[in-house]
């Protein structure tokens, strides 16, 4: 990652103290691999699971502050890739490590957004080596469909610009050498869109092929094996920027907020 961008991230990102925090996992591969990176680099373990309807905890006695991974938290530390403003002057969590927050992306300039995964942001910030094989690199771009911007005329130049800033010229070359369908095949083969869920007994489960994925990324990827219990019930809402022009107009205690398109957003309140 170019130093000019790296210096704009929150100061906590550059604190490499071991085991000072826990992490919040949500229900997809982007979050799980991000949690795995956070554990490998800083020793921060998963202690919470967030599925936008409820927040669950593994060890309630653990009072360390948590870092949300691939979560657009309204307050508190988080790694995030979402657009978190409706209006350009909307409040943004100052502790979010988010390229779209740094570059003031909102509904009005939506097509200038960083449209790749949280994992890729973390990979760049922590200066991790890219997977050795092209298949591994393609898998990395397949997370959260991070390759799509290259094949969309609205995003292609912006997509390339972000990859250059992040130091990923090899990924640009890979995108140029392959078709969109090649990446879709990789996604299907490795079930990258599979979800993580709690079973009826409170244990996390998934159909993601974790052992296969770990072989490509050289990062230990595993789900916590202990039981989770409900910590807080939440309410999930969907909105439209035609009717609500600013986050300040939303009612309730906002837990997370993200635009899911130029004119749509999703948020959770406690």
Short description:
By secondary structure, the protein is of the alpha/beta class. 28% of the residues lie in helices and 19% in strands. The chain has one domain.
Number of E-state strands: 12
Mean pLDDT comes to 96
Number of helices: 9
Across the major sheet, the strand order is 6-5-4-1-2-3-9
Spans of at least 5 consecutive residues whose pLDDT stays below 50 are none
Q: Which percent range describes the beta-strand content?
A: 15-25%
Protein name: DUF2971 domain-containing protein
Kindly describe this structure.
By secondary structure, the chain is α/β, with parallel strands linked by helices. It has one domain. It contains 9 helices and 12 strands. A 7-stranded mixed β-sheet has the order 6-5-4-1-2-3-9. The chain is globular. The mean pLDDT is 96.
